[in-house]
Design a protein that fits this description.
Elements (H helix, E strand, L loop, with lengths): L2 H37 E4 L3 E7 L2 E6 L3 E4 L6 E7 L4 E5 L14 E3 L5 E12 L2 H7 L3 H18 L3 H7 L1 H18 L4 E12 L5 H70 L1 H16 L40
Antiparallel strand pairs: 1-4, 2-3, 2-5, 6-8, 7-8, 8-9
Helix pairs in contact: 3-5, 6-7
C-alpha cells in the first residue's frame, strides 16, 4: 500500500471520529437543552406547579425553590400563582339616578328593593381544578357571587341588610359563594365578601335615611340610658348597703341596750326582794336627782327635825329644815 493511501485512510478515520464526537456533543447538548427547558423549574413564593404525566394529573408542587421532573413529553407542568389575592367588584350605587344595575338591584325578604355594592376577594385554592376542570371560571364567579348575594339578601329584611345584619349578610354570602365554587369545581378559594354600600333606591332614599337616623338616635339614647344606669346603680347599691349596715348597727345597739336594761331591772328586782324599803327610797332619790339636776335639794327624814347627815347636798354643806309629814323636797 502506497504511503499516500495510508495517509488518506488515517485522515478519513480521524474525520469519522471527529464527526462521531461532534454528533455525540450535539446530541448531549440537545438533550441538555431539552431537559433544561422541559424538566427543570424554579418556583417563586406564591407559585404552584401542576404536573401531568403522559397527559394525566400526577401531583401538585407548592414548595418554593428549584425542582426537577421528568422531561417533556413524559411529564409536563403548568405554573400558577396561587398566593396572590384577587378581587372583583359588583354593582355601583354612585351612578346617576335612573340607571339600573343588574348586579346591584336586589329584593329583600320583606319585599323591599335595595341597591347593594359588594366586593369579592378570592385566590386560586386548587391549581389543578382551576386550570383543567374549571370552565369559564370568571363567568361562574360573576354569576355565582350575584346568586349567593341575592339569596342571602332575600332571606333578610331591609333593616337587617342596611344596618343590623350587614356582617352576617356578608359572611353568609361568602359561605354560599364558596359552596357554589366547590360544586362547579372551579378551584377558587373565597377569602372574603365585603359590603361596600347598601342603599335603597333613589326614589325612597330620603325616607330610609330618616329611618336610619331615627334608629341611630334610638340606639344613642339607649346607650346614654344604659350609661346613666351603670353610673347610678352602683352608687345606689352602695348607699343601700350603707343604710343596711347602719340599720343593722342601730338594731344591735338597741338590742344590747334593751338587754342591759332588762338585766339592770332584774338586778334591781333582786335587790328589792332583799330590802324593799331601802331600794324604794334609793330609787326615789335617784329619780329626783335625774328629774331636778340643777335644783338645790334638801332631803329630810320623815318625822325627823334634822337633815339626813349622810347625803352630800349640791348646795354645799348640810342644812336643817322643819320636819315634814312625808318625804319631800324643799327649795
Amino acid at each position: 500500500m502506497a504511503k499516500g493511501d495510508t495517509d488518506r485512510e488515517v485522515r478519513g478515520g480521524v474525520a469519522r471520529v471527529f464527526r462521531l464526537l461532534l454528533f455525540a456533543f450535539v446530541a448531549v447538548a440537545g438533550i441538555g437543552v431539552w431537559v433544561y427547558f422541559t424538566a427543570w423549574q424554579t418556583l417563586r413564593p406564591g407559585e404552584a406547579a401542576v404536573i401531568l404525566r403522559l397527559g394525566e394529573f400526577d401531583r401538585i408542587r407548592t414548595q418554593e425553590g428549584f425542582f426537577v421532573h421528568l422531561p417533556y413529553p413524559i411529564e409536563t407542568r403548568e405554573v400558577l400563582n396561587v398566593g396572590a389575592s384577587q378581587r372583583r367588584e359588583f354593582g355601583s350605587v354612585d351612578a346617576s339616578e335612573g340607571v339600573a344595575f343588574t348586579e346591584s338591584i336586589m329584593q329583600t325578604g320583606d319585599q323591599n328593593i335595595v341597591q347593594v355594592e359588594f366586593v369579592v376577594q378570592y385566590r386560586i385554592g386548587n391549581p389543578f381544578l382551576y386550570r383543567y376542570r374549571g370552565n369559564a371560571v370568571d363567568k361562574l364567579l360573576r354569576d355565582g357571587a350575584q346568586a349567593a348575594m341575592r339569596e342571602v339578601v332575600g332571606r333578610n329584611t331591609i333593616d337587617g341588610v342596611l344596618s343590623e345584619r350587614r356582617g352576617v349578610v356578608a359572611a353568609e354570602a361568602a359561605d354560599q359563594l364558596q359552596a357554589i365554587m366547590d360544586r362547579y369545581e372551579t378551584g377558587l378559594l373565597i377569602e372574603n365578601v365585603e359590603l361596600q354600600e347598601v342603599q335603597p333606591p333613589a326614589a325612597v332614599r330620603e325616607a330610609f335615611d330618616d329611618v336610619i337616623a331615627a334608629n341611630q338616635d334610638r340606639n344613642r339614647q339607649i346607650n346614654e340610658a344604659e350609661g346613666y344606669a351603670n353610673e347610678i346603680l352602683p352608687r345606689a347599691r352602695a348607699q343601700a348597703g350603707e343604710i343596711a349596715a347602719e340599720a343593722a348597727a342601730y338594731r344591735d345597739a338597741k338590742i344590747a341596750q334593751a338587754r342591759g336594761d332588762a338585766e339592770r331591772f332584774l338586778a334591781i328586782v333582786a335587790e328589792y326582794d332583799k330590802a324593799p324599803e331601802i331600794t324604794r327610797t334609793r330609787l326615789y332619790l335617784e329619780t329626783m336627782e335625774r328629774v331636778l339636776p340643777k335644783v338645790n335639794k334638801v332631803i329630810v327624814e320623815p318625822g325627823a327635825a334634822t337633815v339626813l347627815p349622810y347625803l352630800p347636798l349640791p348646795g354645799g354643806g348640810t342644812a336643817s329644815a322643819p320636819a315634814a309629814p312625808a318625804p319631800g323636797v324643799a327649795r
